C-alpha cells in the first residue's frame, strides 16, 4: 500500500463520517477513525484488538480513574489516549504473539482506540461501535471501487 492510498482512504473516511454525522447526529468515533480502520479491514485480529482495547480503556478511565480524580474535557481525552497506548504496550509485552495484530496500531493507529473509547463515553457503546463499523465498511468499499487499497 502506497502513501497515496492511505491519504485517499482517510480523506474518503473523513468525508463519509462528516456526512453521516450531519445527517444522523451520531459520531463515528472521530472523523479519521473509519478511514484508518478501512486500511486494516483484511486484518480482523487487529480490528478486534482495537475495539477490545477501546472498551477496556473506556472501562478503566470511566469506572476507575474518574472515581479518584475529576476528569472532563481535555483531561478525560488525555486519559483515554494515554490508557489506550499503555494497554497496547502492555499487551505487546505480555502476549508476544498478539504483537503481530498490534503492528497495525503503529503510529497514528495507537491513538485510534483512545478516540473510540472517548466517543463511547460521550454517546454510548452501541451508537459508537455501529456507526464506526458501518462507516469503516463504507469507506473500504468506496476505496475498493475507485481502485485504491485491496
Question: Explain this structure to me?
Answer:
This is Poly-gamma-glutamate biosynthesis protein PgsC/CapC. This protein has one domain. Helix 1 packs across helix 7 (125-145). It is an all-alpha fold and 150 residues long. The mean pLDDT is 87. 75% of the residues lie in helices and 0% in strands. 38% of the residues are buried.
- Class derived from helix and strand content: mainly alpha
| Record field, number of beta strands | 0
What is the helix fraction of residues, given as a range?
over 70%
Which stretches are poorly predicted, pLDDT < 50 over at least 5 residues? none
Number of domains: 1
Instruction: Give a quick account of the main beta sheet: strands, pairing sense, barrel closure.
Output: none
Whole-number average pLDDT?
A: 87
Q: How large, in whole angstroms, is the Cα Rg?
A: 15 Å
Estimate what percentage of residues fall within beta strands.
under 5%
The termini sit apart by: 8 Å
Order of secondary-structure elements: HHHHHHH
Protein name: Poly-gamma-glutamate biosynthesis protein PgsC/CapC
Transmembrane segments: 7-27, 47-65, 101-120, 132-149
Keywords: Membrane, Transmembrane, Transmembrane helix
Organism: Anaerovirgula multivorans
Primary descriptors:
Poly-gamma-glutamate biosynthesis protein PgsC/CapC, transmembrane, membrane, 7 helices, transmembrane helix
Amino acid at each position: 500500500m502506497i502513501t497515496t492510498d492511505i491519504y485517499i482512504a482517510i480523506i474518503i473516511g473523513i468525508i463519509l463520517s462528516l456526512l453521516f454525522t450531519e445527517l444522523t447526529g451520531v459520531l463515528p468515533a472521530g472523523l479519521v477513525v473509519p478511514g484508518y480502520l478501512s486500511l486494516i479491514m483484511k486484518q480482523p485480529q487487529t480490528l478486534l484488538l482495537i475495539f477490545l482495547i477501546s472498551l477496556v480503556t473506556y472501562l478503566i478511565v470511566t469506572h476507575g480513574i474518574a472515581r479518584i480524580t475529576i476528569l472532563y474535557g481535555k483531561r478525560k481525552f488525555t486519559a483515554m489516549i494515554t490508557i489506550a497506548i499503555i494497554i497496547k504496550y502492555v499487551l505487546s509485552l505480555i502476549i508476544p504473539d498478539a504483537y503481530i495484530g498490534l503492528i497495525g496500531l503503529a503510529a497514528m493507529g495507537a491513538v485510534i482506540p483512545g478516540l473510540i473509547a472517548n466517543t463511547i463515553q460521550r454517546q454510548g457503546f452501541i451508537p459508537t461501535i455501529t456507526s464506526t463499523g458501518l462507516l469503516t465498511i463504507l469507506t473500504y468499499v468506496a476505496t475498493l471501487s475507485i481502485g485504491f487499497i485491496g
